[in-house]
């Protein structure tokens, strides 16, 4: 499988297992099945509410001895209520405890949005902290300290626009090593990819299959269903693959990492098998024409109040 390279020589397997929306009671088996069937990259986050169960799977598999901790790339993310510099390392230590690990391969600032420390999901304006109160550079410096202490090997961000990356570049001494963002044929974000490539920032594609299992309040009534797109279905048929496999292969061929979520054993296996397919120039051209800048994960449902708009999360 293709890997993403980091400056110190570390390599992250391009295809990983996503765990957002994976029910706690399902995720343990999903991670165990994935690791026992060739996955070497698991993507987690504190706010997914299932790191305990993911940790149980890690313990079982690593204790079993067939897969070694150092052969698996584990990513997790700092939630928005721990952005103050004194809160970052305690939040990271909780994640390490839940995951039953002594280091992470990659730790990301989950969103460029800060909440009061005791608020998981704000309901009122007062429950947000503005970026003047807790600048992203403050959170970022604490992430760098976590790296210095050896708690994480690499640090990065998620849901950052090129504008916010550029701000960090100017205000701090060290560029994020990763930006994890929503990416799929309906939201190709070529300019952001170009910026990241120019500045040595690796990119991970989340919601690569369109995240059809989001809760109803996160879905627009008229949203397009990526896995049922005619062009994707036609290309899938041509290669004797599934639409999901085409979407995963497309992400991999663009040079990004990609983290399809599944808790179904067959689909977990199928998604990793996507690396064995090839797409030709014509397939890539047809998929490139599907871009319509459509976000499934708008952020607004969770984060938008007067002081915090869709525009200033994504800078668009
Ligand atoms: P399930 O967990 O039952 O397999 P995303 O990664 O974009 O967030 O998408 C996750 C959604 O896609 C989940 O509903 C997941 O369901 C579904 N899914 C994962 N793999 C496949 C696949 N190979 N074919 C169809 N649906 C899939």
From TrEMBL:
Pfam families in UniProt: Aldo_ket_red
Parts forming coiled coils: none
Domain NADP-dependent oxidoreductase: 15-291
Protein name (database record): Aldo/keto reductase
Organism the protein comes from: Mesonia aestuariivivens
């Amino acid at each position: 499988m293709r890997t993403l390279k980091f400056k110190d020589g570390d390599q992250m397997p391009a295809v990983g297992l996503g765990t957002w929306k994976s029910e706690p009671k399902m995720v343990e088996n999903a991670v165990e099945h994935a690791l026992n069937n060739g996955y070497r990259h698991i993507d987690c986050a504190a706010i997914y509410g299932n790191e305990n169960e993911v940790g149980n799977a890690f313990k079982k598999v690593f204790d079993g001895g067939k897969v070694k901790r150092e052969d698996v790339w584990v990513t997790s993310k700092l939630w928005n209520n721990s952005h103050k510099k004194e809160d970052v390392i305690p939040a990271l230590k909780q994640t390490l405890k839940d995951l039953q690990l002594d280091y992470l391969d990659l730790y990301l600032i989950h969103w460029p949005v800060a909440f009061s420390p005791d608020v998981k999901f704000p309901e009122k304006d007062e429950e947000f902290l503005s970026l003047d109160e807790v600048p992203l550079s403050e959170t970022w410096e604490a992430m760098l300290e976590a790296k210095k202490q050896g708690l994480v090997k690499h640090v990065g961000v998620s849901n950052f626009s090129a504008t916010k990356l550029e701000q960090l570049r100017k205000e701090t001494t060290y560029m994020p090593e990763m930006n994890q963002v929503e990416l799929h044929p309906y939201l190709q974000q070529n300019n952001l990819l170009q910026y990241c490539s120019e500045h040595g920032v690796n990119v991970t594609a989340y919601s690569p299959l369109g995240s059809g299992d989001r809760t109803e309040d996160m879905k627009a009534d008229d949203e397009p269903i990526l896995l049922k797109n005619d062009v994707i279905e036609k290309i899938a048929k041509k290669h004797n693959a599934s639409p999901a496999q085409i979407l995963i292969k497309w992400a991999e061929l663009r040079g990004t990492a990609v983290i399809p979520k599944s808790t179904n054993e067959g689909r977990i296996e199928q998604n990793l098998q996507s690396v064995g397919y090839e797409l030709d120039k014509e397939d890539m051209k047809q998929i490139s024409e599907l871009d319509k800048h459509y976000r499934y994960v708008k952020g607004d449902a969770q984060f938008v109040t007067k002081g915090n708009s869709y525009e200033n999360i994504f800078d668009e």
